[in-house]
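Bench log, entry 3. Co-assembly request; chain sequences pasted below exactly as received.
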Amino acid sequence: MIKLDSKIPEGAMADKWKNYIDHAKLVNPSNKRKLDIIVVGTGLAGASAAASLAEMGYEVKIFCYQDSPRRAHSIAAQGGINAAKNYPNDGDSVYRLFYDTVKGGDDRAREANVYRLAEVSNNIIDQCVAQGIPFAREYGGLLDNRSFGGAQVSRTFYARGQTGQQLLLGAYSALSRQIKKGKVTLYNRRDMLDVVKIDGRARGIITRNLVTGEIERHAAHAVVLATGGYGNVFYLSTNAMGSNVSPAWKAYKAGAAFANPCYMQIHPTCIPVHGDFQSKLTLMSESLRNDGRIWVPKKKEDAEAIKAGKLKPTQIKEEDRDYYLERRYPAFGNLVPRDVASRAAKERVDAGHGVGPTGIAVYLDFEEAIGRLGKSVVEARYGNLFQMYEKIVDEDPYTTPMMIYPASHYTMGGLWVDYNLMTTVPGLYAIGEANFSDHGANRLGASALMQGLADGYFVLPYTIADYLADQIHVPRFTGKEPEFNDVEKNVNERIKKLMSINGKQSVDSFHKRLGHIMWEYVGMARNEEGLKKALEEIPKLREEFWKDVRIPGDTAEFNNELEKAGRVADFLELGELIARDALNRTESCGGHFREESQTPEGEAKRDDENFTYVAAWEYKGDGQEPELHKEHLTFEAIKLVQRNYK
Amino acid sequence: MDLTLKIWRQANAQAKGKMVEYKVTGVSPDSSFFEMLDVLNQDLIEKGEDPVAFDHDCREGICGTCSLYINGRAHGPDSGVTTCQLHMRKFKDGDTIFIEPWRAKAFPIVKDLIVNRGAFDSIIQAGGYISVNTGGVPDANAIPIPKVNADAAMDAAACIGCGACVATCKNASAMLFVAAKVSQFANLPQGKIEAKRRVQNMVAEMDALGFGNCSNTYACEQECPKEISVSNIAKMNREFLSAKLCADVKDI
Ligand SMILES: Cc1cc2nc3c(=O)[nH]c(=O)nc-3n(C[C@H](O)[C@H](O)[C@H](O)COP(=O)(O)OP(=O)(O)OC[C@H]3O[C@@H](n4cnc5c(N)ncnc54)[C@H](O)[C@@H]3O)c2cc1C
Ligand code: SF4
Ligand code: FES
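Structure output for the full assembly:
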């Protein structure tokens, strides 16, 4: 039975992290060499953690499913990374970044974690510049900033439209340096299939070598999961094709609580779905909302005419356009937080004002910006995004407005962790998007990169020492312990079972169907009836999967279908937990909108009295209902109030 | 659109490969090249055949995973794009399309269209970094960097490590890839301190891994999806020469 203890340090909010560092246990350098750490994931969180831990002297093993650590999904982040530097002198501070993040998260995050995040944010920028990351600069040679949704200051650092790429390549280069030194061993093209516990503590993992199909054992004193988010449960999302929940899900089944699974971010500015064959959705960075204006036609007839191809958006007169975000939220306008912008788009489309060939899109228009700044400035700021759009849609966004629509993008929920970033399994840590910790019910733009690197460079290296200090007398594990046998046996049995089904339908076809159920009933707007329906449909689909999926090929070879099958099988279980969590939370908050809980104007309505808690679910066995544990959130530094972006 | 595909099939690194012909029908011109291959693979799976293995992940041109040689061109007929960004509207109904993996000694085939590009990781490990540990670094604005230099560094840093430059080069040279990294750091004050050692170690590693020599045909620049300029190669050659001339540089 799980007991949640957030282990928040004593003291005033601004002193907690300092107090923690002052009193945390340390491991001396000669002992660090005797300690092994497994890091699964080479994204911002995993690469930065592995590099930092190796520099400190630990022996690190790192894993990724891609051919190279440099290809982790973090590479795709476009817009930027936040920090409280206040270089533009516009009133930013650690407190304000903390405040905005908690408020952006709709008062559903743990204050102490968020404060620490804001505190270390500045160190990240220093670190990245020292690594040679070519952030955008002003003519005077100093760093440039832009603004992102949910903030009234400019605190976002960026490297053109490729910030994630540059930050990841920085962490990858630090990692590469440690690989060369022999302090980190890289295991690429590996799929983590399970966690191994010995006497209740995480001591290793089981992986499949994706090239040879070999099942392998890896042992260590502690295991860190940096395996990213689970947005692909919707099938179509902005995540990389291989992004998956499996490592986190295996941790859940091994006793780690899964927190707030229903907090998922639907990003407002993605290229709309255009056909059934579609395999993924492409994000158009939120930074575009700095200069682009979002609108739909005021008159339904105009929307109809556009849909039928009889009218062009440029032919619609200014007074016939509804800039609905500017109308509804004059204070923040086009820069309202993502959840608010996404729902507002859905509202207009549902009301029949949607545009494009499907009618499921809204415009993001740069005409005014090009008039104000000139084409060359707009091109310098967003050139690569415009090019990307044009390649996909075959339209020129300089002359005709972009079409956008919300899509699954990021998951605030994830493995429950305490202040140390440890899950409820001792010695098992979760960092980056894989944990639930900092973004509450909604993440602000440019804060995921900040969190991933904060966890990896500046938080975990301290907090893991506090745990490992007690482990210096524990001899190295070999992978030959009986516990490894048991877990490996289960892994092999599951693979055998999957391969022996030999049914008729492909893995992807099941994934697509799951995605439809999730989008329809557990998507941007949820209600009791729909969620109950999802709770009926998902188990049925899962049953069908285990009876009728077809996986060609063999186990002892490169077999992409087998790899995907394992992941989709886990998504089919996760989907149910998401629906269950969404059903339990009858309030609306952040990315979770319950139609039953809204104001007369259609804004989300929270229920602080009953829901100011983190919902942490404990696995109780297949076919059993999971148990809900509540971590009650207390607010010391910030007052609980309904968000208002008007 | 109805298409004929001729695809390189090879069961594993040891096996002998061959071109195999397939037909796909009803492909939407708005679909991406990979979505077209998805259709083919769905078909093959339903027929109980082994689907075609190809590398891909982000499907938006940034991770550098995808790597197809299409009709004799790295990343296909469009310019400035990766394979995953290539759309079927660039082809015509009835076309025959040849699809092969990257071919280079340093990139052995794993299966079908998938190759092992671990050699690129080794080159970066040899010196593609600035040697700073986490923490204890100066304030980010302590050293102003002229915008033109930061922009030039960014131009070079945009490389996604896909390997198209190697695949397209008749010598299978990795010069553009190495030059992009060397030149990113050479443009920045932070990178200067180790500049000489970096270029020597990276070039030595590249040579050891079996990449060919650069004979300045500039095919790499044409096929690079990120349009990395060959001027980076010239910059790297200068760095390399000055490192050679400088007697005190030792490989440490
Ligand atoms: C298109 C896009 C744009 C974004 N833009 C921004 C932005 O501008 N600013 C911002 O702050 N955030 C942005 N985000 C969010 C941000 O990029 C992610 O939240 C963040 O990068 C996640 O980093 P991570 O290290 O936690 O995980 P990831 O980068 O997802 O890495 C996961 C790692 O785990 C490994 N892994 C996963 N499963 C397995 C397995 N089964 N076995 C072995 N290894 C496994 C993978 O190989 C990979 O190395 C964006 C996200 C997307 C999708
Ligand atoms: S230089 Fe261009 S072609 Fe070569 S690896 Fe980099 S992005 Fe690919
Ligand atoms: S799949 Fe990522 S660049 Fe093509």
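The pocket of FE2/S2 (inorganic) cluster (ligand 3) is lined by residues B 56-59, 61-66, 82-84 (CB under 6 Å). Residues 25 and 466 of chain A are 5 Å apart (CA to CA).
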